[in-house]
Specification:
The chain has three helices and two strands, in the order H-H-H-E-E.
Amino acid sequence: MSVDIDTVKRVAHLARVKVTDEEAGRMTGELNTILAFVEQLDEVNVDGVEPMTSVVHQQMKKRADVVSDGGYPEKVVANAPASDDNFFMVPKVVE
């Protein structure tokens, strides 16, 4: 894929970036170099390669996925204006 000056100006317009003709000419070469590198990366065979989160192999730290009340419901409702049996009490808003 090759980029010309008109494409650079169109992309600059869409990005709301003002570029001069001189800058557009320079950007054309830079964008073509970037796109050539991306095409080169596309040739790499990555079949069977799993995505990585880091270049160093490590296990993700995970907590147990369990439902609990946190073990301290009294502390949770301690600052509530009103509570009953460790539940928040709110005034009725709909009659």
